[in-house]
Amino acid sequence: MNKEQEYTENMLKDGSTLAYLKHRFLSKKTKEQRDWLLACIRDSKLIVPCLPVSGKPDFLETDNGERYLPIFSQEEQMPFDYKEEFDLKYLDFPACYELARKYPDVIGLVLDGFTEAMIIEYGLADVIMKIPSRLHG
Predict the structure, then answer these.
(1) Could you count the other beta carbons within 10 Å of the beta carbon of residue 118?
(2) 89-102 confidence digits (pLDDT tens)
(3) What residues form DSSP beta bridges with 111?
(4) Which of 48, 111, 112, 114 could join 118 in a cystine, given CB atoms 3.0 to 4.6 angstroms apart?
(5) Domain boundaries, the chain
């Protein structure tokens, strides 16, 4: 693996790399940008808002009643009043995917659902799960 295909945990730590790659992909939608974004999602620590007492995750619902597990690249991607209502758990993508799958009425995940939202339905989530990690020491 060459240096262009690797990145470090430090680069992913604050979520800015993921937010940047998501923005680039949503703007241009090239295959190369998609591949980088999905690999970054795979290796990032994502933020999942959970209810303080029960520990159950929050869900975002579309006008059509479709429910998604919200995951966030950065705390700044959440409205302040929303963020204050929840305990924020930092999970890797496989853990987020497993959590979403526990709820039969949830049809996928949504990355940064209050700002520049990206829907990750289970078909795409399955692709992300198969991507090998690009992290290196």
Answers:
(1) 19
(2) 999 999 999 999 99
(3) 71, 118
(4) 111
(5) 3-136
In this structure, the strands spanning 135-136 and 7-8 are: parallel
- Predicted TM-score (pTM) of the model is 0.87
What pLDDT does 77 receive?
95
**Distance (Å, rounded) from C-alpha 7 to C-alpha 137?**
9
d(CA 87, CA 1): 38
Place of tokens 């262009």: 4
**Tokens representing residue 128 in the block:** 């992300």
- Looking at residue 3, the DSSP 8-state letter turns out to be G
- Give me the pLDDT at residue 56, please: 96
Asked whether the CA dihedral 14, 46, 93, 22 is positive or negative, the reply is negative
Cβ atoms of 61 and 70 closer than 8 Å? no
The strand ranges marked E within 5-137 are: 7-8, 45-50, 60-61, 67-71, 87-92, 106-111, 118-121, 135-136
- 135 phi and psi angles, rounded to 5 deg: -70, 145
Alpha-carbon separation of residue 30 from 23, 33, 52, 73, 77 (angstroms)? 12, 5, 40, 21, 24
